[in-house]
Amino acid sequence: MDGLSEIVPIKELPRENGKVALFTATGGTLLDGTAPARFEFSPVPVMTAEAVGAPALGLLRLNGEEIPPAQMGRFAGGRLAANFQIRDLDGPGAQASLDAAARDIHDRFAAGPDPTLPPGAPGLFTDPGGAATAVPGLAQRLTVNAAADPAAGGALWRVRDGLQASAPGPVGNADLLLGMHEALGALRPSSLAGMSPVPRSAATLAADLSSWAASGRIEAERVLGGATAQSATFEAMRQQDGVDSDREMETLLALERAYASNAKVLQAVDEMLQTMLRLT
Prior knowledge:
mainly alpha, three-stranded antiparallel sheet, Flg_bb/hook_C_dom, cilium, structural molecule activity, flagellum, cell projection
């Protein structure tokens, strides 16, 4: 029963003839009669950034009926609902924030700072090979433009002289590099979920994103700490109201040792009395 409660918090109610009924903490019926509730789920072999949320990854089924994400609160408090919360809400939310940060970096290095690029051409970062799209997963797909990537047959000097430059320019020419530096420091409106649209530089955006992640972690640890303390309190109350088998066993062993000691004392007294009677 304890293992089941970790998955779905349950309430147990007595029924006639020693039977029990099981309900979720929010009142959903799990067992009240002879046929228990049947949970089903068909997992997908691979989860990608593009396939997020319930429609693409499937829904939990209860007795053959799909449970919409809005109704997963019926099983809140256990691992089952928590896993769906991560899959359908927390994970996609974090993905959207990372994608927004990646899009910001992509747009800062678009055609603006590089005079060799025609309008609409991909800049220093591509998705992949072209301009960024709105498809989820940009943070994972974003790559350096092949023209400036030696591993892809490009040349690093194009970062200095332009992605479509035909030949290396003067080594001391830092105009494009300074333009990229200015692009990083430029204030641009942010589209990160949960953050204000106040214009930010790239450094400020990265700091705010890191702070947002840290705040979420701290809040999760706070909730976990509260739940752990509550669980410990309930366990202490249960032990006070119920029977602690370990403590009862210790008491039983102590009584057994005391009985054995008293038996030896009585035996010694009996032997002394018998000896005195023989001497009189």
